[in-house]
């Protein structure tokens, strides 16, 4: 039976101690099957707390100005078949196509799961 790598430092030298798995390199302890802090923070939620997944349809809950344009995405506009971006450093964690505007990135705090 192979043990999983450490979720904190990715070390392959983990070992079991009773119910716990322990990493000798960074001293991180966890139970098998338990989500790490990085995995928990990777969950993307909409403005009201619903968990979003790839392929969902979302509705814009606030008028959004489009950078570099005089256009506005109005409240109630739907974005279908979204793709979640986990490495979004600027906060735009949804990649989608919006009818009438084309491809764009949105922040999850301004959408609601439809």
UniProtKB/TrEMBL annotation:
Which residues belong to any copy of the Protein YjdM N-terminal domain?
2-30
In terms of Pfam families, this protein maps to: YjdM (PF03831), Zn_Ribbon_YjdM (PF08274)
- Start and end of every Protein YjdM C-terminal domain? 44-114
Under the heading Gene3D superfamilies, the entry gives: 2.20.25.10, SH3 Domains
Family, according to the entry, reads as follows: Belongs to the YjdM family.
This one is known as: Alkylphosphonate utilization protein
Organism, per UniProt?
A: Acinetobacter chinensis
Biological classification of the source = Bacteria, Pseudomonadati, Pseudomonadota, Gammaproteobacteria, Moraxellales
């Amino acid at each position: 039976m192979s043990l999983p790598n450490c979720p904190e430092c990715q070390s392959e030298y983990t070992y079991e101690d009773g119910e716990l798995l322990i990493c000798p390199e960074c001293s991180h302890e966890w139970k098998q099957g338990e989500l790490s802090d990085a995995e928990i923070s990777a969950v993307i939620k909409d403005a009201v707390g619903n968990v979003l997944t790839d392929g969902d349809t979302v509705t814009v809950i606030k008028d959004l100005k489009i950078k570099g344009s005089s256009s506005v995405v109005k409240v109630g506009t739907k974005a279908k078949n979204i793709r979640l971006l986990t490495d979004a450093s600027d906060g735009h964690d949804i990649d989608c196509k919006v009818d009438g505007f084309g491809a764009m990135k949105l922040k999850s705090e301004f959408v609601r799961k439809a």
